[in-house]
Design goal:
The protein has 292 residues and is α/β, with parallel strands linked by helices. It has one domain: Purple Acid Phosphatase, chain A, domain 2 (4-Layer Sandwich). It has seven helices and 14 strands. One of its GO terms (molecular function) is UDP-2,3-diacylglucosamine hydrolase activity.
């Protein structure tokens, strides 16, 4: 009986700790050196990922203030601001984007939760209420001027700079639990075309497990999330488990570089489905790309 009480007490303490930790917001800054001649002016932006409709501070004031303090050129969303099986509109995700859109251009790439809503259009047994809320959410974002990069690209060009931002939306097969599905280069190209030979290319690709395939497409910088930092983070080890139930995922959080290409993986801002966060507070990414 004593052990049961001890176990119950520890479990309650862990739940309380996880709840308190999710109220803390940390900023992580990464400086990326652009390859030669791909960029001539510094770019500064923030990345939001895996909010899952959570709030950080009353009416998101803590998160919004932290973003405003960075004075970014724009905001990139790397997927999963919403949560499947919950209405997208009205929602905290929409309220956050609405306020941020008054200050910055916003480029929104899809995660698996947005993709789940998109797939409803093909399901004859779909939840009409949720699907209608998703459609309304998208239309409202377009009204705000948000760029929805669902297998689309946008080019930002100044007198000396050419920056292309592309959103890659992968089917749900690439998010299933268990063995990782193989992603062919042809499938990437069929969805988003070939990358431009000029300028700097950012690819928003929610699932980081396909980093090698993304750099095979020649993305200069990949922005991902999905793994939630591995849920539980241990010193010197990193993330413990991914949402796809893969232990010690290779690409859990932070900066990864191969062959001169880079990927930054966000630990995310929220959680869903009772998934905990331990030693893994919500994270705002700040990225600066400097010309070579």
């Amino acid at each position: 009986m004593v052990y049961l009480w001890i176990f119950s007490g520890l479990l309650l303490l862990l739940i309380l700790w996880s709840s308190l930790e999710q109220r803390i917001l940390v900023k992580s800054e990464y400086i990326i050196q652009a390859r030669k001649e791909s960029l001539t002016e510094e770019i500064n932006f923030v990345v939001l990922s895996d909010l899952h409709n959570k709030k950080i501070g009353k009416n998101n004031r803590v998160l919004i203030k932290k973003i405003l303090d960075q004075n970014p050129d724009f905001v990139i969303i790397a997927g999963d601001l919403v949560t499947k099986r919950k209405p997208c509109y009205p929602s905290n995700a929409y309220d956050l984007i609405k306020e941020l859109s008054d200050y910055y251009p916003i480029f929104y790439g899809y995660g698996n939760h947005e993709q789940s809503f998109e797939d409803m259009s093909k399901d004859p047994n779909k939840d009409e209420f949720l699907y209608e809320a998703w459609c309304k959410y998208k239309n409202k974002l377009l009204d705000l001027g948000v760029h929805l990069l669902d297998n689309k690209s946008i080019i930002i060009q100044s007198s000396n700079n050419k920056l292309t931002i592309t959103g890659l939306s992968l089917p749900m097969d690439y998010y299933r639990k268990g063995k990782l599905a193989k992603l062919e280069q042809d499938e990437i190209t069929n969805k988003i075309g070939k990358r431009s030979k000029e300028g700097y290319q950012i690819l928003i690709a929610h699932n980081p497990m396909y980093f090698k395939e993304y750099i095979g497409w020649r993305a200069d910088l990949v922005l991902s999330g999905h793994v939630h930092g591995g849920l539980v983070r241990l010193p010197f080890i990193g993330g413990v488990i991914s949402p796809q139930v893969r232990l010690f995922p290779k690409y859990d959080a932070g900066l990864f570089s191969e062959q001169g290409y880079n990927m930054v993986v966000s630990r995310g801002l929220g959680t869903h489905s009772y998934m905990p966060r331990f030693f893994n507070p919500p994270q705002l990414l700040v990225i600066k790309i400097k010309p070579s």
